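Quick check before the chapter quiz. The format below is the same one you will see on the exam, so make sure you can read both the input and the output lines.
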Amino acid sequence: TNVSMAVFVPGHFLSILANANFKRCVHFRLLVAGGEPLFRALTRQLEQVNPLAHVWNCYGPTEATACVTLHQAGIEAPSRLHVPIGRAVPWSVLYLASESPTSELK
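Here is the expected output.
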């Protein structure tokens, strides 16, 4: 297949990786993941199947179905369980709210 880019929720992409036909997607270069936490283990699986593909984690408000942050998977510390939500996209401002005033962002 000539598919080079796809947008998925991580849970759906897990089932696609399990499909033997995915290995035939040699043109695949970009996966944008969003809608649920992206585990680093999943990005490692993709790297094994297609080392040329890039994975970006996006985050945004559900009601708007828009990406307001991006982070390229694989550049974070290998010990992290999740891929970070990243930084605000250009020309955007990001405000994070927490129920706990003592919580820290990492």
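If your answer matched, good. The mean pLDDT is 79.
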